[in-house]
Design goal:
It is built from nine helices and six strands. The chain is of the alpha+beta class and 248 residues long. Helix 2 crosses helix 3 and helix 6 runs parallel beside helix 9.
Length: 248
């Protein structure tokens, strides 16, 4: 890691604003995964390799993913224009950036940054952004909780109907949508941006998440009967909504 950071520190990268590491290796959840590094550029992102040796570059709209092998690690570099990163943060502060399946979803970007390690930050801009995501934006918390409160009864009704009619695929699809909404509201209510849904038990423990809600979620996952699953999700949603909103 030190050699990698030193490479960018010494390279001719005047356009590089700041850089951070995120993901399971950086946060100490595992030592058997890729290194995920995010590089924020003042203007345009690179169009050629930024690492010594061979690397693969893939464009994703305004972003560029660079993948390489470096010092025994598989490294994923995400190159992001500064204005795009600013747009992500602004979306969250306005209560958006959490719905859908677009990649990268701003809410997961914020979660990664909140637990990240700043690697290069010559102007202090990275420190400023990292400070902004230590607590979820109040408009986002309120919007997600209100949506869960409004949507949960309808989801539960349709889940029960699907269970009665043995529409298993529909039941599974509805359950995923409701559980994602519950999960998002839960983390936000606990004062955290929800991380990408991997290593969740470790995040529950690290963040000291509510034990009652953890127990209800475990009950849901242990349920095999669709009707009981609908009831478990109803209880889980109610428990999350019963959590107080974090203070701004």
């Amino acid at each position: 890691m030190e050699r990698l950071v030193d490479h960018f520190r010494r390279a001719d990268t005047d356009n590089l604003s700041w850089m951070y590491g995120q993901g399971s290796v950086i946060t100490g959840l595992t030592d058997d995964s890729d290194l995920d590094l995010i590089l924020i550029w003042d203007e345009d992102v690179p169009t050629a390799s930024t690492l010594p040796g061979q690397s693969k570059l893939t464009s994703h709209g305004r972003l560029v993913l660079e993948q390489a092998r470096f010092d025994g690690y598989d490294v994923d570099l995400m190159h992001v224009p500064c204005h795009t990163f600013e747009d992500w943060m602004s979306e969250l502060e306005q209560g958006d950036g959490w719905e859908g399946t677009a990649w990268p979803l701003p809410i997961y970007v914020a979660a990664g940054l909140a637990e990240s390690e700043l690697l290069l930050d010559p102007t202090g801009l990275g420190t400023e952004h990292r400070s902004r995501v230590q607590t979820p934006a109040p408009p986002l918390v309120t919007k997600v909780r209100r949506q869960l409160e409004a949507a949960a009864p309808g989801f539960v009704k349709e889940l029960r109907r699907a269970a009665e009619r043995e529409n298993r695929w529909l039941h599974a699809n509805l359950a995923v949508q409701l559980h994602k909404l519950i999960y998002t509201a839960w983390f936000l209510s606990e004062g955290r941006y929800p991380p990408f849904p991997k290593y969740l038990p470790q995040w529950y423990e690290r963040f000291g998440m509510d034990l009652e809600v953890q127990g209800l979620e475990a009950t849901y996952w242990a349920t095999r009967d669709p009707a009981e699953g609908a009831a478990a999700l109803e209880s889980l949603a109610a428990a999350v909504l019963n959590l107080p909103e974090p203070r701004a």
